[in-house]
């Protein structure tokens, strides 16, 4: 039986960050992961270029039953701290809109940095090692795994959520939490595309690939301004992924298709400048033609010249384009979701150390906890911040 000071379950973003931090403090640390590679989710993130943090990360960008929980770790290890780390390793990266930072080359660069840090800190990373059972003695945690038996004083669960099962996602973190008496809040897929009801699928058949800059709102008033994307199955794009974290089954989402203009004013101008021009041709100047063709074909908007529109029709058009309402059938689920909403109740954890209040020496960090960030590097920043906070405590 191998003995360590700290064992971390999960060689993902939070787990590796925690391991290096603890290792640098002189702790004997092992990271166990059932996969063939470390950082599998990092490798496919951001289209393979890993949106590794966001310059604007703040507690306001996270969903959690306790909105104050993330304040401590985010303030103690900030996005600038992680940027300084990758700068020291010479990472080439670039800035995108809304504060997002991406690798210039490959997400593998981030994994390499984390593994290098772990190597320098003396951490042992043990892959292809599935945890079969966890138990506790008076002083230690005992782990039975497919690679042998291990014991440790501090056990850190950084096993992630249920997203992307093909990458080995499993509920083990939730099971360990429940085994030691912690509450696990209901989980669901988040940052995920919507599927549509059959009648809406038929309406929008042929629009796959069309993208529109919109302001998307949920029934609870949350709003996001980014693109929506029509797909073969429904709606995707950054604005849809963002709002999905706030959506509940049976609810509708409202989409402002013209967030920078009022359609009433546009129509007034068109009537002055080109009174005989068709509404269709005018709208084609500001929205994709195939989308407008679809709306006309289903008689959602009139096929008339702009000078033939009545005042009531203009008012209806304005409401339609600024409050276009869609009721999703559901989401594509964990298969394509970026993160898992819900998880280990943060009321069960110390916000400073991430230690379980009911079981000394047991810690939960990263996605396995009930903390979900917005799209755009926020979830990685929480992984780095929670990993460091825990690594300083174990």
Write the layout of secondary structure elements.
Layout lengths: L1 E8 L3 H12 L4 E4 L7 H5 L6 E4 L7 E2 L7 H6 L2 H10 L4 E3 L4 E4 L4 H13 L3 E3 L4 E6 L4 E5 L2 E10 L14 H8 L4 E7 L3 E2 L2 H6 L7 E7 L5 E8 L3 E3 L1 H7 L8 E4 L6 H11 L5 H5 L5 H9 L13 H12 L1 E3 L3 E2 L7 E6 L17 E3 L7 E2 L4 H14 L3
Parallel strand pairs: 1-2, 1-10, 2-7, 10-20
Antiparallel strand pairs: 3-6, 4-21, 5-6, 8-9, 9-10, 11-19, 12-15, 12-18, 13-14, 13-16, 14-15, 16-17
Strand content: 15-25%
Mean pLDDT: 96
Task: Report how far apart the termini are.
Answer: 21 Å
CATH structural fold name of the largest domain: FAD/NAD(P)-binding domain
Say which CATH homologous superfamily of the largest domain is assigned. Answer: FAD/NAD(P)-binding domain
CATH architecture of the largest domain: 3-Layer(bba) Sandwich
Basic shape: elongated
* Count of strand segments: 21
CATH class of the largest domain: Alpha Beta
Round the Cα radius of gyration to an integer and report it: 25 Å
Number of separate helices: 13
Helix content percent band: 25-40%
Largest sheet: 7 strands, mixed
Helix/sheet category: alpha+beta
Keywords:
elongated, 2 domains, 394 residues, 7-stranded antiparallel sheet, 13 helices, alpha+beta, FAD/NAD(P)-binding domain
Characterise the protein shown here.
This protein is α+β, with helices and mostly antiparallel strands. The protein has two domains: 2-188 and 339-391, FAD/NAD(P)-binding domain, CATH 3.50.50; 193-331, Beta Barrel (Elongation Factor Tu (Ef-tu), domain 3), CATH 2.40.30.10. It is 30% helix and 24% strand. The chain contains 13 helices and 21 strands. The strands form five sheets. Strands 1, 2, 7, 8, 9, 10 and 20 form a seven-stranded mixed beta sheet that branches. The protein has a seven-stranded antiparallel beta sheet with strand order 17-16-13-14-15-12-18. Strands 3-6-5 form a three-stranded antiparallel beta sheet. Strand 14 (223-230) and strand 15 form a beta hairpin. It is elongated. It starts with a strand and ends with a helix. The mean pLDDT is 96.
């Amino acid at each position: 039986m191998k003995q360590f000071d700290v064992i971390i379950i999960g060689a993902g973003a939070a787990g590796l960050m925690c391991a290096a931090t603890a290792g640098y403090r002189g702790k004997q640390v092992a990271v166990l992961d059932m996969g063939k590679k470390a950082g599998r989710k990092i490798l496919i993130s951001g289209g393979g270029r890993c949106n590794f943090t966001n310059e604007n990360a703040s507690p306001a960008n996270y969903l959690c039953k306790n909105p104050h929980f993330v304040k401590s770790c985010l303030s103690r290890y900030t996005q600038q701290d992680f940027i300084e780390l990758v700068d020291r390793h010479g990472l080439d990266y670039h800035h995108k809109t809304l504060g997002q930072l991406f690798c210039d080359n490959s997400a593998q660069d981030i994994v390499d940095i984390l593994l290098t840090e772990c190597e320098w800190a003396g951490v042992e990373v043990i892959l292809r090692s599935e945890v079969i059972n966890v138990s506790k003695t008076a002083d230690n945690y005992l782990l039975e795994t497919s690679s042998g038996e291990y014991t440790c004083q501090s056990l850190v669960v950084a096993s992630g959520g249920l997203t992307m099962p093909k990458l080995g996602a499993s509920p083990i973190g939730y099971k360990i939490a429940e085994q030691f008496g912690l509450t696990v809040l209901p989980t669901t897929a988040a940052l995920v595309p919507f599927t549509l009801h059959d009648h809406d699928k038929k309406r929008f058949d042929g629009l796959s690939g069309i993208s529109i800059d919109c302001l998307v709102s949920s029934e609870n008033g949350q709003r996001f301004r980014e693109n929506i994307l029509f797909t073969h199955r429904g709606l995707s794009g950054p604005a849809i992924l963002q709002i999905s974290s706030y959506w509940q089954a049976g609810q509708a989402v409202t989409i402002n298709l013209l967030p920078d203009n009022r359609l009433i004013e546009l129509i007034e101008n068109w009537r002055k400048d080109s009174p005989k021009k068709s509404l269709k041709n005018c709208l084609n100047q500001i929205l994709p033609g195939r989308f407008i063709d679809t709306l006309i074909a289903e008689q959602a908007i009139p096929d008339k010249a702009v000078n033939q529109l009545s005042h009531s029709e203009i008012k209806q058009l304005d409401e339609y384009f600024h409050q276009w309402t869609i009721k999703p059938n559901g989401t594509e689920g964990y298969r394509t979701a970026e993160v898992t909403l819900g998880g280990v109740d943060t009321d069960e954890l110390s916000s400073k150390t991430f230690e379980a209040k009911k079981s000394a020496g047991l810690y939960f960090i990263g996605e396995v906890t009930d903390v979900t960030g917005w799209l755009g590097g926020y979830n990685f920043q929480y992984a780095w911040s929670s990993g460091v906070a825990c690594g300083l405590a174990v």
